[in-house]
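Researcher: Good morning. I'm working through a list of sequences from a screen, and I'd like to move beyond sequence-only analysis. For each chain I'm collecting a predicted structure so we can compare shapes side by side. This is the next one on the list. No need for commentary yet; just the structure.
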Amino acid sequence: MRCIQTYLQNSGIPFDPIARRLRCFGHVINLVVKAFLWGEDPEAFEIEITNYQSLEKEQEELLAW
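Model: Good morning. Structure tokens for this chain:
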């Protein structure tokens, strides 16, 4: 945050690194990764995985026949 402060001050923009600290940075990273991996609907990803697992099991049963 101090690097950002230095950069912005050189540009004439006031910036307080204490007031603008990154809160819950781990949570922010988690949200970004989820959005990147699953898009806007993480439940759709879970449904797709479940469907894929069911399809895989069905294919194994068909091969057994």
